[in-house]
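Before the break, one more example. Copy the sequence into your notebook; we will annotate it together after we see the structure.
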Amino acid sequence: MYISIDQSTSSSTVFIYDNSLKLLTKLSKSHKQIQNQLGHVEHDAEEIYKNILFLLKKISKKIKLHKNLFLSITNQRETFVIFDTLSGKPLYNAIVWQCRRGQKICDKINKSSKNQSLIKKNTGLKLDTYFPAPKLVKLLDNKKKLKEKLKNGSALFGTIDTYLIYRLTNKKSYATDYTNASRTLFFNNKSLNWSKELLKLFDLNIKMLPQVKESASIFGYTNLNQILKDKIPIAGVMGDSQASIFANQCFNKGNTKITLGTGASILTNIGNQYSYKKNTITTLSYVYNNKPSYSYECLINYAGATVSWLNSNLKIINKPQETNSIFTKTNNSNGVVFIPAFVGLSSPHWLPNSKGMIYGLTPSVNKNHIIRAALESIAFQIKDYLDDLEKNQKIICNDIYIDGGIVSNLSFMNFLSDTLKRKIYVTNFEDMSSYGSLIMGLLGTKIEKNLKDISKYKQKYTIYHPNKNKIIDSYKKWKDVLNNFYL
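Here is what the structure looks like once it is written out:
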């Protein structure tokens, strides 16, 4: 029996798996999305921690202590929190990856081509407010006390995994893994250490940064805030997208995974050699036995979040699940084009200041056409990126594995396959990020010895084949609108 935590953008989930990694039970609890200013997105990190303890306590009767029991953690990447060194409690809300507050910092630093080159060379990433560094600079400019606390060591910086580990180990372990550190913009993804050069560039004077470990490590010990009688190891810690590519076992060049969650993350394996290109993100997939694995990555800000917007803001659906039947029954979008640039467009265009658009409204359009167009936009953003990857980066994506909540919409999966004109492998198991960090934990605790040993844990997939005779006319129109209004 094993325990896993998935701390995502919208909720926290606790899982219990049996010894063969069959999911026995899971419980989730959502947390507030705090958006008090235009472009600002925050979470209450204390609420997140309390939610996790609540779930662990609720599920505790099903936990059986044994010598192999451990806890793994996967988390929303790029979201960070400043917390008190003595108490572990947050000193300010967590700043979410969707937050755009660092845009002016990016604009200022990007004026120098030397700065751009330095960031790209060291991180493989692009200077964008998607990543923590510019948002941290902006936060500290406005909160001088936090800046001083980080400087003198009375406060600590951490991504969500670091914060949870610190709290769960009763402040004994201040650590992160390579996948989370790699997303900060002040970690060198080639040399695999915190970069003094980048910290200086961002003028970040931080006394302590977390110890960086391989994902398949032991990060400390916890009794889950006295929920358990004995302490168990925390092993297997990964950012959610990297945990997913690991769970899908994309170990060969060209293997691609697409996670359709709040956003959409596309990772394509490029091997063990660090490589960076101007308009492409290079991601550190994981480090195992001192050997790094890298991927090219596409970051789409709005996938499932687009559906949530239809529900919460437009209120044209009562719950996200309704879109499954609406997509099936509505044959086309009736000329409606949906560009979900709510917080800008990322890969492959990187237009942070662009806004969302619904185009092509006529008297015959109804809400179902808008809903259909919104879902289509998820597929179109994926195709837009994969086409660019093959055309401009000369990377052929093979064996495309797809996971995430939207995979339950079977009609959409067929539409995606037709749009991409590719065979896709879709797992019915929704929780691949949790699964990936758990498998890493098996390696970290030496229950499994190497990557070959974990092949038996690969999930089963439904294969969707494209209809070769089907032409997706709506993609051409979507692309035309994108070119005419944005590019």
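The longest strand covers residues 291-300. Residues 2-241 form a domain with the Nucleotidyltransferase; domain 5 fold (CATH 3.30.420.40). Try to locate both features in your own notes.
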